[in-house]
Amino acid sequence: MRIYAYFRIDKLTVKKYNYVDLINYHGYTVPRDRIVIEEVEIDAALELRYKLMNLINYTLKSGDLLLVEGIDSLGSSFKEIIYCINALFKNEIKLVCLEFSKFELNGDVKKIFYHIFKLCSVFEGKVELVKKTGIKKISKAGRPEVLNSNQKEEILKKYKKGKSINSLAKEYFVTRTVIQRLLSNLSIEIDF
């Protein structure tokens, strides 16, 4: 089994760590020529992470172990992370995410880890779809309306015909305040 380590760094973390010491701290020994460091921003798409893609597609073989510092090393979105995890697991490449655990992801932990990221990927897809289509759920704050629009029109007509606020409130099973507010919002002169 060969061990490789991949670290995504950006301008903020360029000189943050001695990566050999970090690997050793977690109990692994990786030859320097198998430590891959790529300077790329966290929001850079997977296709711009050339070293990672070459590592996954051409260098790593079945039974190899890949160490990553954080899950953000594998992509800029949950969809990309799932793509990388799928590629690794499909090719039987073992994965260790040092931020998560210093142990290889296997068994039930591997299944849960994958399932959580799959759920996040589906959620992220739904959010993107809403953003693309511009569909937004409009929700009103406060209590729900007591009267529907038909009832409001009926109340207005009955009030104009001379029915009192008190009798309208009793008829529609609401308080007088509801009727008064309705008439006030419609700019109707209220007789007290």
Describe this protein's structure.
The chain is of the alpha/beta class. The protein has two domains: 3-133, Rossmann fold (3-Layer(aba) Sandwich), CATH 3.40.50.1390; 139-192, Orthogonal Bundle (Arc Repressor Mutant, subunit A). The chain has helices at 19-25, 50-59, 78-90, 107-133, 149-160, 165-171, 176-185; strands at residues 3-9, 35-39, 65-68, 94-97. Strands 2-1-3-4 form a four-stranded parallel sheet, with helices on both faces. Helix 3 links the parallel strand 3 and strand 4 (94-97). The radius of gyration is 31 Å and the shape is rod-shaped. The termini are far apart. The model has no long low-confidence stretch (mean pLDDT 86).
SSE order and pairing:
Blueprint: E1 3-9, H1 19-25, E2 35-39, H2 50-59, E3 65-68, H3 78-90, E4 94-97, H4 107-133, H5 149-160, H6 165-171, H7 176-185
Parallel strand pairs: 1-2, 1-3, 3-4
Helix pairs in contact: 3-4, 6-7
Helix content: 40-55%
**Proportion of β residues?**
5-15%
Tell me the span between the first and last alpha carbons.
Answer: 89 Å
CATH architectural name of the largest domain: 3-Layer(aba) Sandwich
Task: Tag the structure with descriptive keywords.
192 residues; alpha/beta; Rossmann fold; Arc Repressor Mutant, subunit A; four-stranded parallel β-sheet; rod-shaped
